Amino acid sequence: MREVTLGQVLEALERVGIQRGDGLLVHSAIQFFGRPQGGIGLYLNALNTALGLPVQGTLAVPAFNFGFARGQTYDPTNTPSEGMGVFPEYIRQQPEAMRTRHPMQSLAVIGAGAAELSKLDTASAFDPGSPFERLVELDFKLLLLGADIQAASIVHYSEQRAAVPYRYWKSFQGEIVTSQTDGTQRSELRTYRMFVRDLELDAHLDFHPIQHALQRRGQWSTTNLNYGTVAVCRLQDFVLAADALLAADPWALVENRTVAAQRYQEKLS
């Protein structure tokens, strides 16, 4: 297996246009790059340097965990991320990281915007006023660090806005551990919601039409790093492309749209 150096990662970030002071939403699959010299911290060191963290720039990673939906208590400090890969969990555990409040679809954030984002609390992680919407407003970039566009969670923001037919609203109630002003913690019963997939429709999602639209407009930058790819676009451009596709066809991001749409109509009848 090839080795990955700090210099290689910094060069890749520069090639795709990452600059000091940028805000980044990072989805990662760093196993495709090879073995990092000195361990996984190499990638955080590279991003610290490229963005100017912690004084300049902001780094956000998905720290999702759906245990709350299964009746588990959510503790923002101690509940690990699940299914997001090793890098988001590494970021979540950093002493300077702050976590947004949604118990199922949270972000772990480091840098200049961490305090602001961690205070935002909405019923859905993609509601108006949510941390994800704020990333768009602040002109964050999406950085796919070895990951495919299929990993891009910001697509749920557009799906929710378009009220896509292959999802529906579901509420979840459970215990949340909250920190008090006196430094103590207590557990509160809270209700949150998600725009979940209708599994009966068996919709196979494919976000590559968004990538193709961005590529046609020259809004998608990419470079290779060993066995993997580094790609970047602006979140605002991503959302505009996804919104346009879903406005023209609410099934635009469903690969088996004919079958899924037929099942949807059968459920309505």
The share of residues in extended strands comes to 15-25%
What's the mean pLDDT score?
A: 96
Shape: globular
Compute the number of structural domains. 1
Number of strands: 11
Number of DSSP helices?
9
Rg, please? 19 Å
Largest beta sheet: strand ordering: 5-6-4-2-7-11-10
Uncertain residue ranges: none
Q: Roughly how much helix do the residues carry, as a percent range?
A: 25-40%
Provide the structure class: alpha/beta
List SSEs in N-to-C order. Answer: EHEEHEHEEHHEHEEHEEHH
Please tag this protein with its features:
alpha/beta, 269 residues, 24% strand, single chain, two-stranded parallel sheet
Give structural notes.
The chain has 269 residues and is an alpha/beta fold. The chain has one domain. It is built from 9 helices and 11 strands. The strands form 3 sheets. A 7-stranded mixed beta sheet has the order 5-6-4-2-7-11-10, sandwiched between helices. Helix 1 packs across helix 2 (41-51), helix 6 packs parallel to helix 8 (235-248) and helix 7 (208-216) packs across helix 8 (235-248). The longest helix has 14 residues, at 235-248. It is globular. The N and C termini lie far apart (55 Å).
